[in-house]
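Hi V.,

You were right to ask for the full record rather than a summary. Here it is.
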Amino acid sequence: MFGIPMVGADICGFAGDATEQLCQRWQQLGAFYPFSRNHNDLNSKDQDPTVFSEAMQASTRKALLIRYSLLPYLYTLFHKANRHGYTVARPLFFEFPKDTTTYSIDRQFLWGEALMITPVLEENALSVDAYFPDDVWYDFYTGGKVKTGHVQLPAPMDVINLHVRGGYVIPMQNPALTTTASRTNKFALMVAMSSNLTANGALFWDDGDTIDTFEKNLIIAMKFKAENGTITSQVMHDGYPEATSMVLGSVQVLGVPSKPSTVTANGKLVQFTYNSNMVLNITDMSLPMNKEFSITWT
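Predicted structure:
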């Protein structure tokens, strides 16, 4: 609300001692703060994940790896914040201003337009109440559709509930131990189809270090569009010197009504699977992202 998109509370709290369970839930939530840092004062007990159980460490690692896989989307949101003043983390009512139920919701939030985060904020809770505004929503983990309105979601200790809004393409990347390592991995797209079977998205990318890359045109920017059983890319700016190393390895399409018989990428047959959640997984690709591509299923 105050124009500072890079923000996040000290995970597990700055003063005082958090219990392991609450710290575990806070680590899951904190993985989706724009600024994500576990930090406390000298007079409090250590609270980094390594001082807790292996289960707590594993769930923290799981949440952070999801964050790392979503860094292309998060990085693009920060670019939009820098250029246009958009929010990165935002309340539901920013996207659904006519839905008065969203006005009082402060236990869920969005990354941009497309990703909803529903954390557990109470000890000993293994479920969480969520509200889904009138739109198409998919479970981030399974790709299955969820109903709108008030829903009680299961929330095992190693899970933070994430949902993807239909009509959007989320750029992703295979995660690694560091951002330097992860940015050398292949990219992926999560395509969440709207009720009319369309989706749109974007990616902004640079070397992650150089100042003023946009002004110096040391960037690559592209748009993605899905309609009529085809996903296409359009390169808007191509000044990033290392763009030739950017490769698209996989695409996951949520909300495909029926199993395709064939899938092609730039006219060549590619491997795919389709499951009962109406999720189409297209794998084993190596498409240069600095070149426009077309992926079609029929």
